[in-house]
């Protein structure tokens, strides 16, 4: 299986990239460190082009990305490959469902709004029932540079990546449209029981 991972250099993207390699995928990485930023329309075209011969495309934006650009990236990939048997795996977030609604920081509400928009777009496009399949993964807090110093339970990014690949594999004869994976408060990293 050939895969492309956008955002392969750290965090969830790095875990997915390395797990793909471990599982003998023919995997290619592309991202900010290669000068490709999905905030830029011309650079998103590079991701679409690089995805041409791939069976599965993972879009894992960096924490500093404009999260609404994920919707643009999904739309452009889907438009190009709508009638191809290809899986587009978008890494969203569970925060719109789990975040304290009294949060005062605007940037966190904007982040949540972008994730809700991504959920909506993925569901709408999947509803078209075209050969191109979108799999939206909504992880909770992950043990990465973004959550350094957190005392809350965290998900191991490599365990998350292994489960994401299982979901991709299971999505052959059935469509797994959206999956939320949150940390276990008792057994996750920083959990009470280890």
Task: Explain the layout of strands and helices.
Elements: E1 2-6, H1 11-22, E2 26-30, H2 41-50, E3 56-59, H3 68-81, E4 87-91, H4 95-98, H5 106-126, E5 133-139, H6 157-170, E6 178-181
Parallel strand pairs: 1-2, 1-3, 3-4, 4-5, 5-6
Describe this structure in words.
The chain has helices spanning 11-22, 41-50, 68-81, 95-98, 106-126, 157-170; strands at 2-6, 26-30, 56-59, 87-91, 133-139, 178-181. The protein is an alpha/beta fold. The protein has one domain: 3-Layer(aba) Sandwich (Rossmann fold). The protein has a six-stranded parallel beta sheet with strand order 2-1-3-4-5-6, sandwiched between helices. Strand 1, helix 1 and strand 2 (26-30) form a beta-alpha-beta unit. The termini are far apart. The mean pLDDT is 87.
Sketch the major β-sheet: 6 strands, parallel
Poorly predicted segments = none
CATH 2nd-level architecture? 3-Layer(aba) Sandwich
Listing every helix as H and every strand as E from the N terminus to the C terminus, the arrangement reads: EHEHEHEHHEHE
Strand-residue fraction?
A: 15-25%
Total domains, how many?
A: 1
Q: Assign a percent range to the helix content.
A: 25-40%
Can you say what the CATH homologous superfamily is? NAD(P)-binding Rossmann-like Domain
The end-to-end span amounts to: 35 Å
Round the mean pLDDT to the nearest integer and report it: 87
Number of helices: 6
Helix/strand-derived class? alpha/beta
| Secondary structure: number of strands | 6
Radius of gyration, CA atoms, in whole angstroms? 16 Å
CATH classification, class level: Alpha Beta
By CATH, the topology is Rossmann fold
Question: Which sequence of strands runs across the widest sheet?
Answer: 2-1-3-4-5-6
Shape: globular
